[in-house]
Amino acid sequence: MTSERLTGVPASPGRAAGPVVRMPARVPEPRTTRLSGSADEAVRAVKEAAARVEADLAERASRASGTAADVLAVTAAMAADPTLAAGAARRVREDRLTPERAVWDAAGSVANQLEALGPPMSERARDVRDVRDRIVAALTGAAPPGVPDPGHPFVLVASDLAPADTAMLDPAVVTAVVTARGGPTSHMAILARALGIPAVVALPGAGDLTDGEEIVVDGTLGVVLRAPSPAEVERARRSVTTATFDGRGVTRDGSEVELVANVADPAAARAAAAAGARGVGLFRTEFCFLGRGEEPSVEEQVTAYRAVLSHFPGRRVVVRTLDAGADKPLRFLTPDHEDNPALGVRGLRTAVAHPDVLDRQLDAIAQAAAAETAEVWVMAPMVATVDEARDFAAACAAHGLEQSGVMIETPAAALQARHVLAEVSFASLGTNDLTQYTMAADRDLAGVAALSTPWQPAVLQLVRVACEGGAMHGAPVGVCGEAAADPLLAPVLVGLGVTSLSMTPRALADVAGTLAGVSRDECVELARTVLECSTAQAARDVVQERLLT
């Protein structure tokens, strides 16, 4: 019997096999029932249920680390969002709705507003509905959303997966994830990569997969096999990587490529160092800002940054200044409402209205750098113009931070790289946003998931232009987006001129293994061939054929 091959979008590399376990149905929609008791008591019940959900998610965040902790903290903040609570209270008092119905309708209104804003805010609509389900479950006594526990390893299949659930997946139990919706740079996909769980998203036919059937998932190729042969199952199980990383990225002919880690908090830094990473290509500083109503003090920031820097004595750590706005709003910093926040005040742009926040953060980074022995470089997110780069470099210099750089996340910054890198010392390509802005595609929307890949020829052309701009000034240009973790894409990026690849620590061994099998000249030839391809699929296919056959 021949296996049936389903093709979706690759989201997290690796192969795995196992029986399907479907995500249970979401909390059912409450009936529209009129309130018979006290409105004050009903409003109080909503607030208490929201507080319990917030406390549960915050507790999960405290047990997680890195991106997972950030995602859980943001989701916990959603449960405490006064907009949601006020909307539910108004429906209780004015429409005499029961608490659960009021919460359902209020959350639906917020989610619809987010979807109307477009990416990246639209991807938060799913998170709002996840919080809604948890609050309704707390009010009604229903089972809250959560990953099933059948007592054996399995492949999790869902229409979509909320980041709050993905963040708590156990890779020893969940061997792979398959979803009908989502995109390759969604939060779910990023979390799956961080956990080392193979994943395929936007899979046509995912809804037909049944509980208990054995499937093979190839997250590198975006393929799911139904009714696989025993040999196909065995190959998938043998393919689980046992490779280790010795700290070096070296091509077959001895050319070095710096392989470093993305980290988001001290626990993630400790894990990265334990995995062999010799430095950090992206230190996300949001962890000490998210979920707070006020800016952390300079002293708090110094303590937090030192806790990361201390794991890399004598090694380079690239610190990204606060990347707030869009899907990471902060009450004390970002606007209360923007019609299109993805194109609004985010990243470095927040410093226009609040230069003091950036100044205090640079002060804290400088103090932490002086107290530790790590080699600290600093870069700003969401840079689009030469003036922004020049002003940021001056701000860093005023604090004694000599190595200043920028994130290249906009096509404008990539196209102007030769001028931007005349003002700063280095750049790092954030391929998630660069892809999103280049392709005008919501990274979490299944309908455009095929567009949301760094294999797109237009995106790779921008990478080439950015690297050429850096080479004109002898300035290194790295990649710290999710593209760096793709073992097939890594040699292409090196061939385009990328000098370092920063990724989730779990990807280091696989990327190093791929680079060890190719020469520098072969990387350049791969890049040249890929740039001649007219489609993303053609580019991926040609590299796959060269490297895997």
TrEMBL record:
The gene is ptsP. Residues 154-222 form the PEP-utilising enzyme mobile domain. This is Phosphoenolpyruvate-protein phosphotransferase. It catalyses: L-histidyl-[protein] + phosphoenolpyruvate = N(pros)-phospho-L-histidyl-[protein] + pyruvate. It is found in: Cytoplasm. Keywords: Cytoplasm, Kinase, Magnesium, Metal-binding, Phosphotransferase system, Sugar transport, Transferase, Transport. Its main location: cytoplasm. Its cofactor is Mg(2+). InterPro entries: PEP-util_enz_mobile_dom, PEP-utilizing_PTS_enzyme, PEP_util_C, Phosphohistidine_dom_sf, PTS_EI, PTS_EI-like, PTS_EIN, PtsI_HPr-bd_sf. It comes from Promicromonospora alba. Residues 250-513 form the PEP-utilising enzyme C-terminal domain. Belongs to the PEP-utilizing enzyme family. Its EC number is 2.7.3.9. Transmembrane segments: none annotated. The keyword Kinase applies. General (non sugar-specific) component of the phosphoenolpyruvate-dependent sugar phosphotransferase system (sugar PTS). This major carbohydrate active-transport system catalyzes the phosphorylation of incoming sugar substrates concomitantly with their translocation across the cell membrane. Enzyme I transfers the phosphoryl group from phosphoenolpyruvate (PEP) to the phosphoryl carrier protein (HPr). GO terms for molecular function: phosphoenolpyruvate-protein phosphotransferase activity. Residues 7-124 form the Phosphotransferase system enzyme I N-terminal domain.
